[in-house]
Amino acid sequence: QPAKQNEIRVRVSSPHFSYCAYAGKILLADEHDFVHLNATGAAVANSIKVIEYLKKSVQGLHIVYRITNKEFVDESEPLVEGLDMVRATRVVSTLEADLTVTKGSEIAQEPGYMGPLPEDQVDQE
Known about the structure:
Layout: E1 7-10, H1 16-28, E2 35-40, H2 43-57, E3 62-76, E4 86-100, H3 104-107, E5 113-114
Parallel strand pairs: 1-2
Antiparallel strand pairs: 2-4, 3-4, 3-5
Helix pairs in contact: 1-2
């Protein structure tokens, strides 16, 4: 299903700075209280880079992390006629993060919560 307007699905092949710019636009310019980042497998590292950059660049940024697993089922037709469908199940690690500058009190009690950095540690230019 398509991503929502305030949801970012991080991929490993895209540069993290483009996600930073898009997330910053959603948080600071659009009328959304939350940005939802979602990354699976190798893209988790890219997602962490995005969050760390934003944490040091956006004043008052509240973050909550969730680490989960997603199960994917791959089906393929056999190359030889008359054989059954080939079905493979794989489990992939997933990092989900919610970012907000306006609704920090709503996520402050959740496991994985990180409060904003002090003002002197944020370079918001």
